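Researcher: Let's try something more involved. This one mixes different molecule types, so please make sure each is placed in the same coordinate frame as the others.
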Amino acid sequence: MEHQLPLPLFNITDDFHIISRSMQAEEIFPLTENLLEIVDQDNVDKMKNCFITSNKKIEFEINLITNDSPLELFRAFATINGTKISCVFVPMGDQYDAVQKQLGELQDRLNDTNFELFQKKEKYARIVDQFNELSGPYIQLSEDLALLPVFGDLTERKILAIKDSAFKRVYRNQPERVLIDFTAVGNIEREGVRELKDMILVMEQMGIYVVMIGLSPQHAQALKPYRNELHLDFVHSAKVAIQKWLIEELR
Amino acid sequence: MIIYKNEDSFYKRVMLLMDTTNRAFVEALLAGDHARSLQIVTIRQGNCSRFEIYNELITPAMYDIGVMWQKNEITVADEHLATAVCDFVLTQTEFELLQQSASPYATPKAMFFTVEDEHHYLGLKMVSILFREKHWNVKYYQSNLPIDHVLKEVERWKPNVIGLSFSLAYRIDELTDYLKAFSKLEDKPEVLVGGRLIKNYDFSSIGPPQTTFIQDLDELQIWFNKDKQTRRDEFDGTSTTSSVV
Ligand code: B12
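Model: All components are placed in one shared frame. Result:
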């Protein structure tokens, strides 16, 4: 399974010993035995503290040592199952660079024009939206198959942000199927679901099959009111979905 | 931190008030609230110096934000927002000084920048403003200045002081390169190096003679006092430090 994921994934023990890693993980990080060895010194305590929890799923940002860089920021998504832990790292680097550049430009202007620029606050709000957008990256797996993993809590604002870029990409690439992956979704807000439903409806109108994967029972419950309205396929795991469509397509 | 020996209710109230204000400032930074952040600073300015605002309000606030990230309470996106607001507030505290800014030839001159690829500049910005407050002729280049560029500018402008800052542990090698290059300069400017790491490591081995490593603003104040004394002595034509003015 871990060899098919388009993201770096580690399976570790509760003392961070690495049991297995995905191909991406092999490519991006030094081949250490312990996961803490690729964590920046100033971040080791954070890493350890994040796992002192009774939650089954955790999400946090962490600076890691990669083959290319002595320090790079990642967003980590971990699933804890007793002493077995799976941890996926999504690189944040370039994404923040863009924002940093934007903020830099804004700051220059702020500093030039002084007080009158209070109104620029709205601009910052828009930048927050950008970060929301990054919580639902659109990944084209093949010509006909796209993956839209959603990270974190499902809020109206997040879906609004994700939707925009997802529609543009879907429109340009015209995949046959979009897999919306809920594995890393935490809480669901009612407004979030409504927005999600609208997003799915639009995709269906564009002639795309939408497949929901990785739904927990709570997620399924939250989506129930819209089940009839939408013509969704449900598949339990990303593995099955990817095998079913991607592997078959490649044959 | 201020510790009051006499813990009567008045002091407790004062401490509480200070506490909430610091916390309120952190919250305002994280909320991206320029107006409120500036308001807190303006109120404090009523009875605090610039030095105190930087040392007791703004620096601790940014360190707190670092701790909140460590506790997974905020993200780097929040840090970016707080940084932008903090930068804005700092600029406001500099505003009146800029209006009385000196001619490009006035002395003493000081120039400030962070080493290449180092974008942590808030501390450096505070320091550059404090130099301006003390009537130095200041060039503040903010961040990420390549070494060749620095050397050219130093040779042209001939600053008395070069101030640089770094926060990323893995940039220590680059820092050493800068310091080596400065030690070869003819004019021998005084070099000040600051940043969060100075506290944690012993840098004495990498600094050439005219380099001073400065942990925090209190140490900078000590340096200012010494420097003032030296300049007065030079002015008086003596080389001892015994003259009292
Ligand atoms: C805010 C912040 C940012 C802001 C930058 C703000 C800015 N423009 O300055 C942003 C979000 C952009 C950022 C980015 C990054 N950051 Co950052 N950041 C911080 C944070 C939370 C606070 C820094 C700060 O503003 N401090 C307040 C200032 C006033 O304090 P100061 O710098 O120490 O300065 C005082 C004194 O040192 C002294 N001083 C400083 N300079 C000078 C110079 C002279 C001449 C003198 C006399 C005195 C002096 O006076 C100052 C006034 O009191 C720290 C956490 C921490 N504990 O420091 C992390 C931290 C420094 N960042 C870190 C990292 C990893 C990064 C990134 C690589 C990844 C990321 N998180 O996105 C990028 C790197 C970008 C780059 N290439 O430089 C790490 C560094 C780890 C390490 N191993 O070195 C830290 C420690 C956080 C962490 N625990 O992981 N960061």
